[in-house]
Amino acid sequence: MNIVSVCGPTDIDGGKISYLTSSVGSQVDISGGSVSYVLPRDFSQVDISGGTITWIYGVWSSQVNISGGTIGVYGGFRPDAQSIIKIFGSDFTVDGQTVGYGELTSIFGGSYNDEPMRHLTGTLASGELINSVFYIGHDAKITLVPEPATLLLLGLATVMVRKRR
């Protein structure tokens, strides 16, 4: 079992890690390799643009930004304790229902262990598909963010509607 704990800037672009934890304001960039469990905490940030990640947790005011990679094929997301997971992409659905963009939050407000399993699909900004389960605990959230091309199209549509009026 390969356990890596970081406290500072770290780049991961290959190899295999079983558990990756980051703390005390660390900045971790994952662009390749394989990580079974990512656990950011203590105001740290993890940016994922590639690689294969099985489970992404998040606690104690951490943030995870996902724009690419293979996420949670047999895992998913479990944010808790004021953490935020931002997923950049398009065509998002939750439990088969189109959700567009915005925030997903806890249903019951307790631990993610007490939440029902939910299912997220969509396309990441990199073009890779996402098809993962998630549980959101306490006051954590998953934020679905349109990728830049979608934002541009939404902006142009708004301008066109205003011009017609």
What does it look like?
The protein is mainly beta and 165 residues long. The chain has one domain. The chain has one helix and 13 strands, in the order E-E-E-E-E-E-E-E-E-E-E-E-E-H. Strands 3-4-6-8-11-12-7-5 form an eight-stranded mixed beta barrel. The longest helix has 17 residues, at 148-164. The protein is globular.
Q: Could you give the topology of this structure?
A:
Blueprint: E1 3-6, E2 10-22, E3 27-40, E4 45-48, E5 52-58, E6 63-66, E7 70-79, E8 84-94, E9 97-98, E10 102-105, E11 118-124, E12 129-134, E13 141-146, H1 148-164
Parallel strand pairs: 1-2, 2-3, 3-4, 3-5, 4-6, 5-7, 6-8, 7-12, 8-13
Antiparallel strand pairs: 8-9, 8-11, 10-13, 11-12
Task: Give a quick account of the main beta sheet: strands, pairing sense, barrel closure.
Answer: 8 strands, mixed, barrel
Number of helices: 1
Provide the gyration radius in Å: 16 Å
**SSE class:** mainly beta
Estimate the global geometry from the Cα principal axes.
globular
How many angstroms separate the termini?
Answer: 62 Å
Estimate nothing, just give the exact number of structural domains.
Answer: 1
Helix content: 10-25%
Low-confidence stretches: none
In terms of DSSP E residues, the strand content is over 45%
Q: What's the total number of strands?
A: 13
Mean pLDDT: 91
Q: H/E series, N to C?
A: EEEEEEEEEEEEEH
Looking across the biggest beta sheet, what order are the strands in?
Answer: 3-4-6-8-11-12-7-5
Short key terms for the protein model shown above:
eight-stranded mixed barrel, 165 residues, 13 strands, mainly beta
